[in-house]
Amino acid sequence: MMKDEVTTPCDSAHAPQTDLVQKLQEEFAGIALDPSSNGSDVCECDTANAPMPITAIPTERPENMILFGGAITCSFPRRYTDVSDVREVPNNQEAFVDANRDESFIVELLELKENVTDAGSARWFLEDLTVEQASENSLVVEEENSVPAANVPNLDANTTVNAVIGTMAVAKGRQGPEASNVVRVYLANIRLRVVGTDILVIVYEPLVISEHSESAQAVGAGATVPALQAGLMPAADVFKQVLFTFNVHDWSLFGSANE
Fold it and tell me: InterPro entries given for it (predicted)?
């Protein structure tokens, strides 16, 4: 279902233990699926317990981007480059990556899963993703809810949109489980029943890079630098911004998306 840019299957018996993911969940907790802040929110916290103070605000701003030949548009920072410029991407996907941070996001069109109920649909797709990547034993779901119409203003108010945030341990490329990174995944499911389509919006944010991962050469091993400290829009805000600006211009797209 998903692109191979971010992860590949690994032997879950040798993957990092779930307690590591749970520990990171506690450390990085507090992501909220509220309207996009454009990276400008100031977070009050106990500085005595904060591992690292926020000393910068984003200097980048999202730009309106064209997907699927203009049939869909949404806004996100230009540091995410089009994966199709370097390798083939399936026709039902648009994939983007920030190689300097090993962050990526995908918009994927799928045939509507009639057997999946609207309630909890995003979690269903996330769990399905972890099974494909042999990461189900490390998955920790942090937050799950429905996205209110005010947060997706360009979609019909009756459109079902669900979102989930989870953390899991996955390897990249063809690497083995010893190279697994701890990654936070933001996933939204837009259910367009009238055209028989499930749209997935998925943002991947690495939290810890394994020293054995190929990503360590570009990003460095260990805990990743928070986006705000680098003057960048946090992945959580990128996710919310994409949803807030998501707009379908040509509905004929869905006539061939699932062929």
Answer: Mog1, Mog1/PsbP_a/b/a-sand
Cα dihedral across residues 85, 255, 124, 118: positive or negative: positive
Cα Rg, the chain, nearest whole Å: 18
If one counts every other C-beta atom within 10 angstroms of the C-beta of residue 69, the result is 8
Would you state the structure tokens that stand for residue 245, as one six-digit string? 């600006």
Contact between residue 188 and residue 200 where contact means Cβ atoms under 8 Å apart = yes
Is residue 123 domain-resident?
Answer: yes
pLDDT of res. 59: 74
Interval 178-224: pLDDT, tens: 667 788 999 999 999 999 999 999 999 999 876 665 566 676 677 88
Can you tell me which residue has the tokens 């004929």?
A: 252
Mean pLDDT of 13-36: 45
Q: For all residues of the chain together, what is the average pLDDT? A: 78
In a domain, 42, yes or no: no
Report the number of distinct structural domains present in the chain: 1
The confidence band for 175, taking pLDDT boundaries of 50, 70 and 90, is low
Is 153 a member of any domain?
Answer: yes
* Cβ atoms 33, 240 nearer than 8 A: yes
CATH number of domain containing 164: 3.40.1000.10
Lookup: tokens for 225: 């630098």
* Residue 200 host element (H or E): strand 197-209
The CA distance from 101 to 209, in Å, is: 10
d(CA 58, CA 63) in angstroms, rounded, equals 14
Q: The pTM is what?
A: 0.77
Domain that holds residue 156: 19-24+60-254
Residues 6+ apart with CB under 8 A from 256: none
